[in-house]
TrEMBL record, chains A, B:
It catalyses: N(tele)-phospho-L-histidyl/L-threonyl-[pyruvate, phosphate dikinase] + ADP = N(tele)-phospho-L-histidyl/O-phospho-L-threonyl-[pyruvate, phosphate dikinase] + AMP + H(+); N(tele)-phospho-L-histidyl/O-phospho-L-threonyl-[pyruvate, phosphate dikinase] + phosphate + H(+) = N(tele)-phospho-L-histidyl/L-threonyl-[pyruvate, phosphate dikinase] + diphosphate. Keywords: Kinase, Nucleotide-binding, Serine/threonine-protein kinase, Transferase. Bifunctional serine/threonine kinase and phosphorylase involved in the regulation of the pyruvate, phosphate dikinase (PPDK) by catalyzing its phosphorylation/dephosphorylation. Its EC number is 2.7.11.32, 2.7.4.27. This is Putative pyruvate, phosphate dikinase regulatory protein. GO terms for molecular function: ADP binding; ATP binding; phosphotransferase activity, phosphate group as acceptor; protein serine/threonine kinase activity. ADP binds at residues 151-158. The keyword Membrane does not apply.
Length: 269, 269
């Protein structure tokens, strides 16, 4: 390849949907390879579109666009043919299909996905909730939560709480340490709200060693010894057995995957 | 409309990309209206595909799919014609365009967007960082952060920190209260790392009243009085003037919009 591949992203709003499609696609090609994304958000007229499409042609780029106005989508299609430019309509086909099943015209207002509506405030509240009740900071969170994550240190409790918060679920998480009994609130809530996060000891040891290294601490601290880890995991087993709650093995899972499993468990309950 | 519109989501991985496109499109139609999304993640063979497409046809649904294997995409296309089913290929056109600019075949491995790679761990670290250094909990966060958000209570500091964390930025946030001087670390860091979050007093009053109501407290508490708010905002002005940092008005912005503005400021620096 002679030159760096360039992808133009055009959106009438922030461009988050286009970003998601482009990133997911890039993951199928890129492996530390260079590329460039040129983002143009808030495009709402043909003058601006013309300028961006001309630049994309000059750069021999491909274009991914999300535009809710069908006239603007049509403009991009026609202009791309004239310019011999490869452009991909990311949201148009879905909008057109929905127009048929909803039997009405789209509202054609860019940025509706970022409305300050009830769903938005629920999501923001869930994010704040997860921060407030992270790491067992306040046991009152356990009683108010939709989901309570239970696990030893370094089982992704914090990032998992945040990913679930993005799905508007209120999540509290409780760390399991052999020296401290979990808060009594944990044994009072509906156990179907609790999820145990288990992990295999070798994996946990690796993660903790990395963690210590990152913190500039000695790798052979108690925290990352096999004996300590076995002890913590044994105590974790006792707690989740007593709770009789679902348990997920997070050993080789990305946070998104574990979050998805938890959503499935919740929906099947 | 006689029946509830149904959208089938098919993915060879979690389905997050398809979810994003479907939700963004739905926001153009739905306004409290009923609809249903039927999700089938981890589809990797034609047997499963055939079954889901048959169900979708029975339900008179539309189908949005993300499949990295071109043979499976082809299968959906052909089958949809036979079944007279409307199906939308969400990622195929982008993958095919990228194949041309990258001049190589895609890796065709589902779920590469959820790899446990360096970018993944950086993102997780940023999420944990934002939780750890939320609300000025520990001023050492200020020195390690990529971005420091400064604002009075209820200016979206916490959710904003989390949204920026998803973009792998380490964010600390510092609450501004007239009774307490901000930590001295704030005046020692590069001011271009700081972002002030301003808000108009009426808007802030509304938000705080709602907050008090949600917490079951009296709406006329000091926290939500005009005098108190003016006092806090005046002190905020002093702090950001002293810092000489960029300031964003968050009054009517969704967190995603403010996050996007911050990313633009960072990139232009």
């Amino acid at each position: 390849m002679l030159k760096k591949p360039i992808i133009y992203l055009i959106s009438d709003s922030l461009g988050e949907t286009a970003e998601k499609v482009i990133q997911a696609s890039l993951s199928q090609f890129v492996n530390g390879q260079e590329y460039e994304i040129v983002r143009t958000p808030y495009v709402e007229d043909t003058t601006k579109l013309k300028q961006v499409l001309t630049n994309a042609t000059r750069d021999k780029a491909i274009v991914g666009y999300t535009l809710v106005n069908p006239e603007l989508r049509q403009y991009v299609k026609q202009k791309s043919v004239l310019l011999n430019l490869e452009s991909i309509d990311i949201i148009g086909p879905m909008l057109e299909a929905m127009e048929r099943i909803f039997e009405k015209k789209p509202r054609m207002k860019p940025g509706l996905a970022h409305q300050l509506d009830e769903a938005y405030f629920k999501r923001v509240e869930a994010i704040e909730f997860a921060v407030q009740y992270d790491d067992g900071r306040d046991p009152r969170g356990i009683e108010q939560a939709d989901i309570i994550l239970v696990g030893v240190s370094r089982t992704s409790k914090t990032p998992l709480s945040q990913y679930l918060a993005l799905k508007s679920l209120k999540v509290a998480n409780v760390p399991i340490v052999p020296e401290v009994d979990p808060p009594e609130e944990l044994y009072r809530v509906d156990p179907s709200k609790c999820i145990g996060l288990k992990i295999n000891p070798e994996k946990l040891n690796d993660i903790r060693r990395e963690r210590l290294k990152a913190l500039g601490l000695k790798e052979n601290a108690n925290y990352a010894t096999h004996r300590r880890i076995e002890q913590e995991l044994a105590f974790f087993e006792c707690v989740v057995n007593k709770l009789a709650c679902p348990v997920i093995d997070v050993s080789n899972k990305a946070v998104e995957e574990t979050a998805n499993l938890i959503m499935q468990i919740k929906m099947s309950q």
